[in-house]
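for the writeup, i need someone to sanity check this before i put it in the appendix. the sequnce is what the collaborator sent (i think, or maybe the updated version? ugh). structure was predicted straight from it, no edits. if anything looks off just tell me and ill rerun, i have time this weekend
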Amino acid sequence: MATEKARALRGVSPDDLQQKEAAIKEELFNLRFQQKVGQIENPLKIRTLRKELARVLTVKGEKRNSNKKNAAEGK
């Protein structure tokens, strides 16, 4: 069963998903750097960002597969 967060992402354009992916990856990099230095305020933020990134990548894959399927069927 899809979560509300995933449903919201499905309505987003592929370009916006790409931008969201890049922003999450950059924020993850910064948080991991803070973690190594010992200055991270909320270590659980890394977990939530990883899950959000997984959602974005899943929706991107669904859209890509849907586009391939539609192209193969001639729609």
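The longest helix spans residues 44-73. The helical segments are 4-10, 14-37, 44-73.
thx in advance!!
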